[in-house]
Design brief:
The N terminus is likely disordered. It contains eleven helices and 13 strands. Strands 1, 2, 5, 6, 7 and 13 form a six-stranded mixed β-sheet that branches. The chain has a five-stranded mixed β-sheet with strand order 10-9-11-8-12. A two-stranded antiparallel sheet has the order 3-4. By secondary structure, it is an alpha/beta fold. Strand 1, helix 3 and strand 2 form a beta-alpha-beta unit.
Length: 288
């Protein structure tokens, strides 16, 4: 009978450990010797070529923990579910939580913007990158950039440019027009089926009059298509990007914040940013 109890306990422990909703603690990550980085190819955070700002950052974090780094590719529609173990979809500022799914990683790092609906299901690290949603068109567009004054006035002026345009956006990302107050304005949303890195090329190919881009992607577009990018103005207040963690894993989040604080103090993080986003210092000189 005692032997049966031991076997039953072992079976139950195995089920809990490998169940779809299981989240590894910091101690378990250290014991198992690997940190799983969930990432979506996006701008210069995750290039898809084995490097990027987020890839280098989390690889260094894994090294600081004394474990092996493992990249786990995912998509914008699944990345949060792959971390939390539950299907999650946005509905405005609210997160709709659905069925249980397998947990595939320990943290999210790929230029993840801190948004109200995401804060309901994730805890975020200290901010690692500044961002803002910009309205962007091709250089040959008849739309003209606003004259910057202050954030509130600039956003209102940019919203007026939306009248009657076809606006390219991407669902399940921070570039979904439905997430913002300007969603009620007089324009037509065209939802893009490709990845975020392809939004601006789609505008150049005539799929829409303009698109939403956040700061990192706009900086990449300017460098890849010099002379072809027209930044019209901002459509959101300044936001922050951060690393995402499960809410029941505060120890891992704190370990990252401690590691990140030291990386900033040493100047190493600034050099990593300069490697992948050299132009960001022209726009946000005080952030880093």
């Amino acid at each position: 009978m005692k032997k049966n109890h031991v076997l039953l306990f072992a079976c139950l422990a195995t089920v809990l450990l490998f169940s779809p909703g299981h989240c590894r603690t910091l101690d378990e990550i250290r014991q198992e010797g690997v940190l799983r980085h969930l990432g979506v190819p996006y701008a210069n955070f995750v290039t898809g070529q084995g490097d990027g700002l987020s890839v280098e950052l989390i690889r260094r974090f894994a090294y600081s923990l004394g474990v092996r780094y493992e990249f786990v590719p995912t998509s914008w529609s699944n990345v949060i579910s792959d971390l939390t173990g539950q299907q999650v979809k946005p509905d405005g500022d609210q997160a709709i939580v659905g069925a249980v799914v397998p947990v595939r990683g320990d943290l999210i790092a790929n230029g993840l913007t801190v948004l109200p609906w995401r804060q309901q299901v994730l805890d975020f690290s200290d901010p690692i990158f500044p961002t803002q949603v910009w309205l962007v068109a091709g250089a040959n567009s008849a739309l003209q950039p606003i004259r910057p004054q202050n954030e509130g006035v600039d956003i209102a002026a940019t919203r007026r440019l939306l009248a009657g345009v076809n606006l390219l956006g991407k669902q399940n990302t921070c570039l979904d027009p439905a997430l913002y107050p300007f969603a009620r304005d007089n324009f037509r949303t065209v939802y893009f089926g490709g990845n975020l890195n392809e939004l601006f090329p789609a505008v150049l190919q005539g799929e829409a009059d303009c698109t939403l881009l956040d700061v990192p992607d706009a900086l990449v577009a300017i460098s890849r298509w010099p002379g072809q990018v027209k930044i019209l103005g901002p459509l959101s207040q300044q936001q922050n990007m951060a690393v995402g963690f499960r809410k029941d894993n505060p120890q891992l989040r704190q370990a990252f914040n401690d590691f990140y604080a030291e990386l900033r103090r040493s100047g190493v993080y600034r050099e990593l940013v300069r490697k992948y986003y050299p132009a960001v210092f022209d726009y946000y000189p005080d952030f880093f």
